[in-house]
Specification:
mainly alpha, 2 domains, 8 helices, 0% strand
């Protein structure tokens, strides 16, 4: 399994390096920086393993790489958030699964935990990490006047919010993200219950 994941990660890195060369030629600095950030973030699981002895499971590692490519490179640089209304939903659902994998990896460091305790901790950690994610989006929006939470009155991302929504776009976006992450977390915990018991 490690050979497969290493091949997958190295393939993503090579593709991003090639795309960076293309973006340099097109003078698209934002895309180059995003690709470089993704390549850097692909090393985070190795750092966790070396420094903290925490190793994500196979699915968690595959989805982690997919999420950082989807958010940092495709979502932000290539504007997939604006092009596809469902893009953000998929990312938050998958993030719930990855956060549960991280919780289970952390739980393995504790001795003699029941399956219920492991999954309760992982569920709680996943929801907490998502809340931190949303808070960071809010802070970035406030500091740099970006539109991660779709709060601006005129937004390129109106497709994130239904025309029938009675609440402001920023609230709808944040709550949708939270609900979808909780759904991904719950589905992951149910599946893990059968794996752990």
């Amino acid at each position: 399994m490690n050979n497969i994941i290493n091949l997958y990660i190295n393939l993503i890195r090579i593709i991003l390096i090639v795309l960076s060369a293309y973006h340099i030629k097109k003078r698209n600095l934002k895309a180059v920086l995003s690709a470089a950030a993704v390549v850097g973030l692909t090393f985070l699981p190795y750092a966790l393993e070396r420094v903290m002895d925490i190793q994500l499971d196979f699915l968690g590692r595959v989805l982690y790489i997919a999420i950082i490519v989807m958010t940092v490179y495709l979502g932000s640089s290539l504007k997939y958030y604006d092009k596809y209304y469902w893009w953000d939903i998929v990312i938050h659902f998958l993030s719930g699964i990855v956060f549960v994998s991280f919780g289970i990896a952390l739980s393995k460091k504790a001795a003699d935990l029941s399956s219920f305790s492991i999954l309760l901790f992982s569920f709680t950690l996943s929801v907490t990490l998502h809340v931190i994610w949303e808070v960071l989006e809010y802070i970035v929006d406030c500091m740099f006047h970006t539109d991660n939470q779709r709060w601006q009155k005129v937004s390129a991302s109106n497709n994130h919010v239904s025309e029938s929504a009675i609440q402001p776009a920023g609230l709808v976006d944040t709550m949708n993200d939270t609900l979808v992450c909780i759904a991904g977390t719950a589905v992951s915990c149910v599946i893990w219950w059968f794996v752990l018991t």
